[in-house]
């Protein structure tokens, strides 16, 4: 509906142009027109977000069917033509850009996922921008930060060039996201930001990774340095030698909390255009990455990462009080976390 109206207006502009009235009158009427148009679009944007989201859901279901064209899958309001103030998009000014946000938790594979995305020549995923507390003190600072990123004016090592076709960041649920869900959902829907949820299915493994990572923050096992992500099998071996002890008394409640927090996030952001990814599925099946690229309207190419997984093999080898943990989870809905395993 929005789209049709905009095309209709464009035709009007053409008609006015051809009439060659006095330049002053023409300019005035164009000015008036663009003001009315702006107000109208903003009104529609605010008004239509819920209807819009439903349309997108329908379209998402159609993504199953492979298609050659990048754009017939994606609603036009998710394609942007940013006008950065710090540089000129020059030859790529005509290439549309998609905006995205990866909503996730610490130790859920998002570092690895981001290196995969950034190996694509047209993707800039700018990392954990909101780990810096000043950027998330209130909604205005959050919006200012997002505006700068989505306008392509944010510079860091992930920044590409004028030909970026998808731009985004990863955002941890505990970094202001769940404190202002309504405002952020409105922003996402109004600006046409697509959401990629990235979660882990095996929350016990996430717990091991979290405990080991916070231990290493102090122990600095790799020659006196702390690393959250590693690039060689030796480094992974060294880090995985430490076996955390899990608090079995609070284990069930802790797992339930982790589960609930993910469910709440999906519920809050359910009106956005989104997809849900699981770390385990990405590890097991690279065709998931193809789905991500299609979701972002990007040319599908092979993605690569140099990161190496730290905790491989059965969990029993990575938990100090394994028997106690196993006993606690036996017979509960979380029992499968004990068995689930990956070899690579
Ligand atoms: C941006 O670059 C294009 C072509 O390289 C040029 O035509 C245009 O004038 C430039 N725009 C600005 C604002 O510098
Ligand atoms: C948000 O925080 C910034 C920086 O601390 C401050 O300057 C600004 O006034 C605050 N805005 C609101 C609406 O509270
Ligand atoms: C991707 O980047 C390349 C090189 O910078 C550019 O030629 C191409 O047009 C870009 N593709 C898209 C879809 O923006
Ligand atoms: C630590 O130091 C040893 C000996 O100097 C070296 O062989 C090894 O590669 C270093 N490891 C890392 C992770 O830097
Ligand atoms: C989103 O979640 C809310 C709260 O659970 C629910 O009322 C609403 O129907 C959901 N909307 C969609 C589009 O799923
Ligand atoms: C990988 O995922 C795709 C769809 O995402 C599915 O069709 C395919 O069967 C999966 N392959 C394996 C080996 O699980």
From TrEMBL:
It comes from Cicer arietinum. InterPro entries: Nod_factor_sulfotransferase, P-loop_NTPase, Sulfotransferase_dom. This is Sulfotransferase. Residues 102-300 form the Sulfotransferase domain. Its EC number is 2.8.2.-. It is an enzyme of class 2 (transferase). Pfam families: Sulfotransfer_1. Belongs to the sulfotransferase 1 family.
């Amino acid at each position: 509906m929005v789209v049709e109206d905009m095309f209709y207006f464009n035709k009007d502009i053409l008609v006015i142009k051809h009439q060659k009235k006095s330049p002053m009158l023409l300019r005035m009427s164009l000015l008036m027109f663009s003001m009315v148009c702006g107000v109208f679009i903003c009104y529609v944007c605010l008004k239509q977000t819920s209807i819009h989201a439903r349309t997108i859901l329908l379209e998402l279901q159609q993504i199953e069917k492979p298609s050659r064209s990048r754009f017939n899958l994606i609603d036009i309001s998710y394609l942007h033509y940013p006008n950065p103030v710090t540089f000129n998009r020059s030859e790529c000014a005509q290439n549309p850009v998609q905006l995205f946000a990866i909503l996730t938790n610490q130790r859920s594979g998002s570092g690895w996922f981001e290196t995969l995305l950034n190996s694509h020549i047209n993707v800039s995923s700018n990392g954990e921008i909101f780990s810096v507390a000043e950027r998330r003190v209130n909604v205005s600072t959050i919006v200012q930060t997002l505006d700068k990123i989505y306008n392509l004016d944010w510079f860091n090592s992930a920044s590409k060039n004028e030909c970026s076709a998808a731009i985004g960041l990863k955002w941890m649920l505990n970094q202001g996201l769940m404190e202002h869900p309504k405002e952020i959902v409105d922003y996402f829907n109004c600006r046409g930001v697509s959401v990629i949820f990235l979660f882990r299915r095996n929350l016990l493994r996430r717990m091991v990774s979290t405990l080991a990572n916070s231990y290493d923050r102090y122990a600095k096992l790799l020659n006196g340095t702390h690393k959250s992500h590693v690039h060689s099998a030796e480094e992974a071996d060294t880090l995985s030698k430490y076996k955390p002890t899990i608090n079995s008394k609070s284990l069930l409640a802790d797992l339930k909390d982790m589960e609930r927090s993910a469910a709440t996030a999906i519920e809050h952001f359910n009106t956005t255009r989104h997809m849900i990814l699981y770390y385990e599925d990405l590890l097991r099946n690279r065709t998931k990455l193809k789905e991500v690229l299609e979701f972002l309207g990007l040319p599908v190419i092979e993605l690569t990462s140099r990161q190496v997984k730290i905790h491989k093999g059965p969990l029993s080898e990575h938990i100090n009080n394994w028997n106690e943990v196993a006993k606690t989870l036996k017979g509960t809905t979380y029992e499968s976390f004990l068995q689930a395993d990956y070899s690579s």
